[in-house]
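Structural prep section.
Before we set up the soaks we want a predicted structure of the protein with PRP in place, mainly to decide which crystallisation condition to try first. Input record follows.
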Amino acid sequence: MDDFPGLHVSSHPAVLHKLALLRDETTKPPQFRALVREISWLLGYEALLDARIASRPVTTPLEVMEGARLADRIGLVPILRAGLGMVDAMLELMPTAQVWHLGLFRDERTLRPVEYYNKLPDSATVDLCLILDPMLATGGSASAAIEVLKNWGATRIKLINLIAAPEGVRTVQRAHPDVPIHVAALDRQLNEKGYIMPGLGDAGDRQFGTGRSD
Ligand code: PRP
Ligand code: URA
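Run finished without errors. Recording the tokens verbatim:
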């Protein structure tokens, strides 16, 4: 993206196909959760492109060769609650990753993030932190999460979202130009309530079935 140098928007056909199903208002929570998981896996795969590897000798049935292993110690930081749905897919990709939960919710009136849970240890124990949250709207929650991680001692951080609004990307990149952002889509804008348009609605409610019943 020319306007946003550190923003990576996936152009993979499988991502685009699944994203349209995810956005569809008739998609029910079980399929929605499956799609969040599948798209997360694909975004995680792309975000790991520059992860460090180390050599690892492997004995195949025919001979010994130099294989590779993931050398970066990776920390997954799901933002509760909607980020929870992205964790399993990432752990499939990176089984040795550690998971540090961070609870932030957006105050509906001020749209400012409120921290209510933090399970990070005293100091950073990983080389690369991947923040997981389906939605990057105003950017308040993501910026707060990045600040928490930087104060904790994290030096390499990536943000992985399913859908971002330009407003949120701008806010995060102004405050944290060193943090690459990986998304499945960059949408048009926020509405007056801070929802991403066209978006998918409330990612937490749609995953966990807690939305309006009408
Ligand atoms: C959603 C989403 C992000 C945040 C994005 O969470 O999962 O964390 O909003 O908005 P922002 O970029 O304007 O900060 P929400 O506050 O709805 O909490 P929930 O996951 O518990 O539903
Ligand atoms: N959080 C969501 O779940 N959806 C939005 O569109 C914005 C914030």
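Observations: The chain has six helices and 13 strands.
Flagged for discussion at group meeting.
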